[in-house]
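User: Continuing from earlier, I have the next pair ready.

Assistant: Great, send them over.

User: Here they are, in order.

Assistant: Folding the first of the pair now:
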Amino acid sequence: MTYIHKTKIFSLLLVIIIFISTLLNGQTIPEKPYPPMLVNDFAGIFNVEQTRFLEEKLVRFNDTTSNQITVVSVKSLDGNSPSMYATDIGLKWYVGQKDFDNGIVILIKPKLNNSDKGHAYIAVGYGLEPAIPDAIAKRVVENEMIPSFRNGNYFEGINKATDILMSLSAGEITSDEYSNHNRPDGFVSLIPFLALVIVLLIIRNSRSRTHGISSHGNGSLLTALWLGSIMGNSSRHSGSWNNFTGNGSGFGGGGFGGFGGGSFGGGGAGGSW
């Protein structure tokens, strides 16, 4: 039996397990919304304006790319794991397009009190798993969502996460580009600048020993610091990831037409706080 055949069999078994789980837990998964909505805030973590902004943003993205991202908040997971709950929503609601399996479910179970634990999970449809592998989904949860969630700002976390997921699924950025962008403090991007400063310091010290410190040497150092400042600002402001957000208030398209028959196979990742 070849590796490809083994992989197909494993995927089929996984789908069967998820399908059986969906039947057993069907009563705990919310029914597909009618009229259809991409933002389904059963836990009440968004206000009216935030819900409208996210809905319009995700509808615009769906209309432009056919990729479907749905945001679902629930007060309880009813004993299910976040991964199973999010995947079951994707399967029961048929998030994504039938021929492309290009759906994403962002599940949030908010932290309701100090003794409670909050959970977040991103379930990724078959067709988007190459663009959003599990490790990247995990990073989006940990870097974009949970820090804001800890402060009680669910809208900010979801807004940032959807920006990233939209750019990844639309091919605007690769998973490697996102990973590199999120290295701590942008240190890698500063290496050329630091090397330039070191070289200029060596040259200046060499001149000071023979001719004294010159104004030209000081000017070169100041120039290097100025360039470094520009590079630092560029690195800090390169976080605008997608072209689908818009201003929110000027949305003029129609509403969401409904989910298209997508499927899920267990791809995704999550975290808790």
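And the other member of the pair:
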Amino acid sequence: MITSSRFYHVTHNLFSIKKLGLKLTKMVNPKSKKQWYPAQSTDIDTLPSVKSLSKTKYEPGKRANRRVAMLNKVFMKQITDLMSTGTVSMDIVGRGIEISKVQVTPDYQSVRVFWVCKGTATDEETESVLKRTSGILRHELSTLSVMGQVPYITFVKDKQEANVVELDRILSVADYGDDYEQTQIGHLLKTEFTLNTRLSEEMKAKIKQLEAEIPLEDDPVPEMTHNVYGLDHDKILSRLVAARKKIRDAWDNVDVNGDNTVISYRSSAVKPVEDNLSNQREELADFLLKRQIMQNKLRKQMRNDREQLQIQYELLTDQTQDVDDESDVYSDDDEDDYLDYEEVKMPSIDRPDKLS
């Protein structure tokens, strides 16, 4: 008979005790698993925070930032060109509108064009004109195919420039008062001096006489210097012109001496006299004689070279013939020795197993 025993782990008893404890606690303190939280009252409307309002849904990356920067430059160029030469230029030209920068939003929904305001009453009129022209500008940009879909254009006052203009106005009022009117610099310069005091006729006559007696002396105009960055350009140019003139004169004064052409860089006062016919004949005869002597030397040298080649060829043929004869003699002797070796009979040697 086979008996089997079942072993229980220690944790079995612990688990059963824990389970009984949990059931006992549920019976003593009945609770649901879901926690209860007090509901918030819907009567109070919570206001949105500044961060939630300023946060954009689309946050561009590095590539998008590069594209936005490039679009800013392209829109800046195209919008300024259209405002100065396009169909809207009739309403804009003459108002002194200055575009400071163009900014495309990260979501590509609008283009903000910042313009510099002057801080005067004409700013409101200028703003209304720009608002009217925004739609026309967008249509013209779409015809140029700058983007697939051109964003809406909005003109915005450049607050930084406006604050600078307002600060200048306040400082001018503080310095000169409210009734100060700025004059142009050109009005301050006058051609003639005016004298508020009245002069007598005798004094005027004396002044005219003195002006007539004193001669007018004009200040001499200083000579223009050519030494820019320590280089005397006038001296360099004069050297170049002199060298060019020297070369030109040299080619004009070419002396032909025999076969060699000699270029003289000194201008000759008297032109060279042409050789007469007898001198030319003598030079021709000398040339022919020299040529004949040179040809004879060449023929003699060629003859000597040919003879040396013939001697070398004969020596080589004799050496090759001697070598062939020696090889024939050596081959005949070898054959005789081989035949003598075959005729000699080798003595037979008996094996040890046969002897036994």
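Worth noting for the second one:
The chain has eleven helices and seven strands. The chain has a mean pLDDT of 75.
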